[in-house]
Design brief:
The complex is a heterodimer of chains A (540) and B (408). A two-stranded antiparallel sheet of chain A has the order 1-2. In chain A, β1 and β2 form a beta hairpin. Chain A has 27 helices and 6 strands. By secondary structure, chain A is mostly helical. Among the domains of chain A are: 227 residues, no CATH class; 71 residues, no CATH class. Helices cover 56% and strands 3% of the residues of chain A. Chain A starts with a helix and ends with a helix. Chain B contains 12 helices and 14 strands. The longest helix of chain B is centred in the last third of the chain and has 23 residues. Chain B is globular and about 70 Å long. Chain B has one domain: Alkaline Phosphatase, subunit A, CATH 3.40.720. By secondary structure, chain B is an alpha/beta fold. The two termini of chain B are 41 Å apart. The chains are: A mainly alpha (540), B alpha/beta (408). At the A-B interface, α12, α21, α22, α25 and α26 of A face α1, α5, β8, β9 and α7 of B.
């Protein structure tokens, strides 16, 4: 995207968001809306709704907790002509891409592009980050400062907004994908009372600094993250009343995996080790180890004795033990492969990544390098069904449309309907990552409506496709179809699918006829809608 | 305020966009009246609802020992439980459901659940939805497998199996395709004229195969067509029923609208999230139970005589620990509570083989034990109200004992 245009779209979108929040709409946004109201744009802001405040019940945006793994092995096998290797790479490690990004990647070469994206610190994202920090002041606040906010909903909306803006606009695309991955892994539901504000620092201080760094560091940071300590209830885990929620999820979801080698007894022992890891209002980050709450007796975790008399070291010992564990390596490797390779990845690649984890002491960047350069990844014709966020972002990043001031509202509301708003999965297992879960009538219908509306002008209030740029002068149905397929999909169409599009664009006439401009544009918009709605674009 | 499609089109500037008019299915339906099968609705309380505080065993003094802060007082005390049978009482917020219990249309099953030892929400929900204890290859849900053995109320209806929500619950997954619908309102395809029909035709042709995605797409087209023709939103709640204004209630009301619209619905799954109360249970559980109770009661009222052909059951992955924890909450337990509602339910009774709460009686020394397998309840449901089925197929690793007589 041209720099000035992009800057203007980022700024105007954020300005509109901020002004709608000050009009009281922020909390209203957070509660979600009915799908048919999604594209509502009357002048009046929606009625403000109060988010759940501490100690008071509220209701949750409903999602169906679903288990990861143990799912129907119904991999997608659509039999589409394979995409070029570099197109596949960009599809998998970014949230959609423009022709110019593809050109740059092709010029650089596959391995160099991987290296470029892995070394994200060297990619300049300062323009975006500066704008975010300017418009969204809660992003940089300490937990203590966040608590002073009059409206917790402000932090809640700003973090969601920042997350989505980064996915759309950041040049560090792989990095943002990793942030999303680890945000899912260490899932914290954003509407569990004070997690509305505390998730902000968890995202900033736990996930982002380590997303392509050290898993061990992230695990340690997570264990003392106020948001996590609150969400999994460890703040109330004391020697007087042990509370096993964190201990259980730490092993089941964060490290060993549900099939890992731990027992119910281990859950209790781990909970005991973390007694006293709690919250206080006397530090800026709110976390503290409070010795009077700690259980100083001996513990035995996974057969390892933690001698009596230890304090905070008990929990740290457990974190080290879990971080070093082979089951953790296998579990994380499999999750990464499911995210980036296939719903049912080959065991050979899982083993390689797990070995890389063990060899490097949990270096995520090394794991990802091995993964992205592996034969299993490169020669892989399995498809990954885009999750809703992937899909919406890729429509926007691919079309490079003119985004009006209100576009964020559109994305936000579609994500509610599709059940994939950032940090809105209520249970600690995080959003699922498989086609069986995400493929549904509700999903397809709303994805189609987003794509059709973006392409044919129905959502012009939010997204205006630059149709002449995309058409590049094409006036005959055959040119329209081939030009747009290349611009949007960057791959060959199966003959049958191309025939369907040609028939649509020709409207019973010859595919070689010269169309009047108005008709050519109308058909081009329709072809864009169809390409974005097709199986090709539903997958990555 | 309800925003109709017309208003939506107007305010969104989409006046030129109309729901795509594909081949519409004509409605010549007769519903399940006269059928020997009820419409079955499965409610999932996700997060493990606290059965001991929902149906209070007030006769058992140990309950009060184990829960000094959390226990619900016996009937008669201020804010005490609502007596059911001299031994058990409902949480005081659940007056609406107690009325249905008194009318004989609601049954309670206590110390119910899965014998599976998992204390993991995700594993336990998974096993329960699949209706199995072992990973034995039954990768579909218990209601989904049941549906595989039935013949449709209405041939070719895409709405035989409906999951309210953004995706299809495992419970209803099987060879009969299930629809996921977050909200009836807006469940349509929108495109600008004059291209609308042509886009619809081409889009359908772009999903020609029998892959997961193709099938889901074809199903979506069929569902959109049928829904447009049947227009379920035209049906207001009957009999003065008042649903709470919450997502669960709206979705339950919409199941009712789908039934009234006679689209061939046979089974539906719906979720009520958020029952995982490790802390602050006293602040949260009462309002959730009230909503739960009022929503179910509103549905019962709304459906009226239709409840002769509808049976609703509830499940949760496990109950909560018998003793309270240090944060005014409860950790993951074992046995819980199930409900069954409808005119064909032998209600007004608590079905229970009380395992006791003495230390040695607790499951793994902490939890209310399971004395009624959830599959026994659901098996009887399918046998009596589902027109009979092959229970060995639906619950493959379960030897069904004698039924409890919950359904007639």
């Amino acid at each position: 995207m041209a720099t000035m245009t992009r800057r203007r779209m980022m700024e105007s979108g954020l300005a509109a968001l901020v002004s709608s929040m000050s009009a009281g709409a922020g909390a209203g946004l957070a509660q979600g809306m009915n799908p048919a109201r999604l594209r509502e744009r009357s002048g009046t802001p929606p009625t403000p709704r109060v988010l759940r405040q501490p100690g008071k019940p509220g209701f949750e945006i409903g999602h169906i907790p679903m288990p990861a793994g143990f799912i129907d092995n119904a991999a997608l096998k659509l039999n589409l002509p394979p995409a070029p290797e570099i197109v596949q790479l960009l599809n998998r490690i970014s949230y959609g891409f423009l022709q110019e990004e593809l050109d740059a990647a092709e010029a650089m070469g596959y391995a160099a592009w991987v290296e470029y994206q892995l070394n994200y610190e060297d990619i300049d994202a300062s323009e975006l980050e500066d704008i975010l920090n300017e418009f969204l002041p809660t992003l940089t606040m300490s937990n203590a400062e966040l608590f002073e906010l009059e409206d917790f909903g402000q932090a809640y909306i700003e973090l969601k907004a920042a997350t989505l803006f980064r996915q759309i606009f950041s040049p560090r695309q792989l990095f943002e994908r990793m942030v999303e991955f680890w945000g899912d892994h260490f899932n914290i539901y954003h509407q569990d009372d004070v997690t509305q504000i505390l998730k902000t620092s968890d995202d900033r201080d736990v996930i982002r600094p380590n997303a392509l760094g050290s898993f061990r560091d992230m695990l340690f940071a997570s264990a003392s993250s106020a948001a996590m300590v609150y969400y999994l209830d460890n703040f109330s885990n004391t020697v007087f009343g042990p509370q096993e929620n964190y201990g259980r999820e730490l092993m089941e979801l964060h490290t060993l995996g549900v099939d890992g080698p731990y027992t119910e007894e281990d859950v209790i022992e781990v909970a005991r080790a973390f007694t006293g890891w709690t919250l206080t209002d006397e530090t800026d980050d709110l976390f503290t180890f409070y010795a009077p709450f700690h259980d100083f007796e001996e513990k035995v975790v996974l057969g390892q004795v933690i001698p009596a008399g230890g304090g905070i070291e008990d929990g740290e010992f457990v974190l080290d033990l879990l971080a070093d564990h082979e089951s953790t390596a296998n579990y994380l490797a499999k999750k990464l492969c499911i995210r980036f390779v296939a719903d049912d990845p080959p065991q050979s690649i899982i083993d390689k990544i797990a070995q890389e984890y063990l060899d490097t002491g949990g270096d995520i960047r090394e794991m990802m390098r091995t993964l992205l350069l592996s034969g299993e990844f490169r020669n892989n014709d399995a498809l990954k069904f885009k999750r809703p966020t992937d899909y919406l972002m890729s429509v926007i990043r691919t079309l490079n449309p003119n985004l009006t001031d209100a576009y964020f509202r559109l994305i936000f509301d579609f994500l509610i309907t599709l059940g994939h708003l950032p940090f809105q999965w209520p249970t600690p297992d995080g959003y699922p990552d498989d086609a069986v879960y995400w493929t549904s009538t509700n999903a397809l219908l709303n994805r189609w409506n987003f794509a059709i509306g973006a392409a044919d002008g129905g959502l012009d209030y939010f997204i205006q496709v630059r149709i002449f740029e995309l058409m590049d002068g094409a006036r005959r149905p055959i040119e329209i179809v081939d030009t747009l397929a290349e611009r949007i999909l960057h791959r060959d169409l199966a003959a049958d699918d191309r025939a369907v599009l040609l028939e649509y664009a020709s409207d019973g006439g010859s595919p070689n006829q010269w169309l009047p401009l108005a008709e050519a544009v109308r058909k081009a918009r329709g072809v864009v809608a169809l390409l974005l709605s097709s199986r090709y674009f539903q997958n990555r | 305020m309800k925003i109709t499609r017309r208003k939506f089109l107007k305010v969104s500037g989409l006046a030129a966009a109309v729901p795509l008019a594909g081949p519409r299915i004509s409605l010549a339906f007769s519903g399940n009246k006269g059928s020997d099968r009820d419409i079955l609705i499965s409610v999932y309380q996700r997060g493990a609802a606290d059965g001991l505080n929902i149906i209070v065993p007030y006769f058992d003094g140990r309950y009060y020992d184990l829960r000094p802060t959390l226990a619900v007082d016996p009937p008669g005390a201020p804010n005490g439980a609502l007596d059911l049978d001299g031994s058990y009482g409902m949480h005081p917020t659940m007056t609406a459901l107690r009325d249905i219990y008194d009318a004989g249309d609601l049954a309670v099953v206590h110390a119910a659940g899965s014998p599976h030892p998992s204390h993991s929400h995700f594993d336990a929900q998974d096993f329960m939805e699949r209706g199995i204890l072992e990973k034995i290859g039954a990768y579909t849900g218990w209601l989904g497998r049941y549906m595989e053995l039935t013949s449709p109320f209405k041939a070719d209806s895409p709405f035989r199996v409906l999951g309210m929500g953004t995706s299809v619950q495992i419970t209803i997954r099987g060879n009969v395709a299930a629809i996921a619908m977050y909200d009836i309102d807006g469940f349509d395809l929108y495109a600008q004229e004059p291209e609308a029909n042509a886009i619809r035709t081409a889009l359908q042709a772009l999903y020609p195969g029998d892959d997961l995605l193709d099938v889901s797409a074809q199903q979506t087209f069929a569902a959109v067509d049928l829904l447009a023709a049947a227009n379920p939103l035209q049906y207001a709640p009957d009999n003065g029923a008042q649903y709470p204004e919450t997502e669960f209630s709206r979705q339950l009301m919409q199941i009712g609208q789908m039934i009234k619209a006679d689209v061939g619905l046979e089974v539906a799954a719906i979720d009520f999230n958020g029952w995982d109360h490790h802390d602050g249970e006293l602040g949260i559980l009462p309002s959730m139970l009230q909503e739960f109770s009022n929503a179910l009661a509103a549905f019962n009222q709304d459906m009226g005589d239709r409840m002769n052909n509808i049976t609703l059951t509830t499940t949760t992955e496990f109950g909560r620990r018998a003793y309270e924890n240090g944060s005014v909450g409860t950790d993951h337990g074992h046995g819980g509570v199930m409900f069954a509602m409808g005119k064909n339910v032998n209600g007004g009774q608590v079905y229970v083989d009380w395992p006791g709460l003495q230390q040695q009686q607790l499951y793994e020394q902490g939890d209310l034990d399971v004395t009624t397998d959830f599959r026994l309840v659901l098996g009887e449901l399918l046998d009596k109200r589902g027109g009979g089925t092959d229970l060995n197929y639906v619950f493959p690793d379960y030897q069904m004992p004698s039924f409890l007589g919950i359904f007639s």
